[in-house]
Amino acid sequence: MNKTDIAIIMAGGSSALLKSAHSPVLAKVLGRPMISSVAEAALLAGIETIAVIVPAGDTEISRLLTREYPEANIEFFEQSSPLGTAHAVLAAKNAFAKAQGGNVLILNGDTPFIDASTINSAYSLHTASGNGATVISATVTNPFGYGRIIRDQGYKFAGIVEEADADSNIKKITEISSGTYWFKADVLLNAVENLSARENGHFNLVDAVSDIIKSGIKADTFFAPNSDIILGANDRSQLMELNEYAKMHTIRYHLSAGVEIPYSDGVVIEKGVTIGPDTCILPGTIIKGNTTIGKNCVIGPNSVIDDCFIADNVKLNQTQCEQCVVKSGANIGPFVHIRPNSVVGENVHLGNFVEVKNSNIDTATKVSHLTYVGDSDVGKRVNFGCGTVTVNYSGKAKYRTTIGDDVFIGCNTNLVAPVNIGNGAYTAAGSTITEDVPEDSLGIARARQVNKIGWKLSK
Fold it and tell me: Do residues 159 and 226 share a domain?
């Protein structure tokens, strides 16, 4: 790839068919906006400059890509009105100054399975053959809606006919245009600047390709061995199909790596997730973001893991984890929520209806049920009784609770931060602890019981 090569991503399409207030390229496949995957493919292919064609007044697409790729050279150009793909290319005319003597890659922003390998292989053919234009084509079972690749009697590439212009014979052709092209920059700019409008006033790239061929400039196709690269979504139904396809593709990848997924029902594993062998993923489990899961774990059912590190031999049953670390041998759930900035230590048990937030819980501690541990540092082998709360918010600021090793927290204890419970200390059930409890001591903070004899009869 040369430094003068650029990519143009078409992202100016209408969201009318998706019935959405957002651009169709922002629709998500396996939790990721489609245009993010397209931009990543171009960057991984080695293209240093990307021009993105956005609808007039767009801010969502530009904010997304700027946030995701802050170091990349991505420029945004508004298409004043949707008058076709060639018209969209002209919106990025200023970007062609950087492509003098180079090549231009045209990508659709709603084809999330395009990959760097296909882009680079097509580029190699394009440059080695000296083509002015190279169309990436593929063969599909159902070509409806796609432009058909037309060849002459010698099987030489002769042009592209769109679905709306195709007669019954052409509609039978199963080799289609992916909508992804490589062009010599000067050839493309000249073609779109001199292109005649269709009857509907649109300027389309397929017509520009035809004009390039008619002018005698060499044009050809690169046949993509994987037809999935052309898949896109024009409506919610197709978007669901893309997600189903991507989901099963990812599941099969993990199965081949030794992960056990006995049923695929409700299992969603996003791209970028790493899972060790002999880990079992049960139904209803969603694993997102930059998550790593070790070996011999049982995850699920009905769990959500987002941007977490889960070590070996961990059990997460009906648990939600976000941006946290769970160390080896932990046994968690059901109905547990581990919130960001938490570290759950080795062999820790968190039982039903436990919430942990911004806390460190050390080895072999047990928090069995109905407990909130927030902004706390908890030692080893601590036992939490039912109904314990670390009261971390004063109404003005949040404070931390520190609990030493081998502490026993009685049922229904409120630990009002900032407070320190020393090693080996106990708190009596029903206590509201507002002062430090020294090590090996018992903290009691409750009123003495008083029985009113005959109280009911006196009413």
Answer: yes
Whether residue 8 contacts residue 105, with contact meaning beta carbons closer than 8 Å, is answered with yes
Residues 216 and 106 in one domain: yes
- Give how many domains the chain has, as a whole number: 2
Indicate the residue type of 293: I
Amino acid present at 323: Q
Write the burial class of residue 314 (CB in 10 Å: 0-12 exposed, 13-18 middle, 19+ buried).
Answer: buried
Looking at the structure, do residues 220 and 268 belong to the same domain, yes or no?
no
Q: What is the residue range of 390's domain?
A: 259-443
H/E stretch holding 280 reads strand 280-281
- Residue 203 contacts by C-beta under 8 Å, 6 or more apart in sequence? 83, 84, 85, 86, 87, 90, 192, 195, 197
- With a CB cutoff of 8 Å and minimum separation 6, the contacts of 129 are 218, 220
Write the burial class of residue 359 (CB in 10 Å: 0-12 exposed, 13-18 middle, 19+ buried). buried
Is residue 263 domain-shared with residue 226, that is, in the same domain? no
Question: Is the Cα dihedral 17, 20, 26, 29 positive or negative?
Answer: negative
Q: Is residue 427 in some structural domain?
A: yes
Are 274 and 386 members of one domain? yes
Whether 450 contacts 444, CB under 8 Å: no
Q: Return the sign of the alpha-carbon dihedral for residues 250, 251, 256, 259.
A: positive
Q: Do residues 376 and 409 lie in contact, with contact meaning Cβ atoms separated by under 8 Å?
A: no
Tell me, what DSSP letter sits at residue 259? Answer: -
Contact of 12 with 53, CB cutoff 8 Å: yes
The residues carrying an active-site annotation are: 369
Angle between helices 185-193 and 205-214 in degrees, nearest 10: 110
Along the chain (459 residues), what's the average pLDDT of each consecutive run of 10 residues?
Answer: 90 77 91 95 96 92 95 93 91 89 95 95 96 95 90 91 91 93 96 91 93 95 90 86 94 97 96 96 97 98 98 98 98 98 98 98 97 98 98 91 98 97 97 97 92 84
**Can you tell me the distance from the alpha carbon of 413 to that of 431, in angstroms, rounded to the nearest whole number?**
5
- Please, what is the Cα angle at 245 between 232 and 322, to 5 degrees? 100
- Say whether both 189 and 104 belong to one domain: yes
Distance CA 383, CA 93 (A): 68
Question: Does 321 map to a domain?
Answer: yes
Does residue 107 fall inside a structural domain? yes
| Cβ atoms within 10 Å, residue 231 | 20
Q: Which residues contact 62 (CB under 8 A, 6 or more apart)?
A: 52, 54, 76
Q: Please answer whether residues 30 and 243 qualify as being in contact, where contact means their C-beta atoms are separated by less than 8 angstroms.
A: yes
Residue 203, pLDDT score: 93
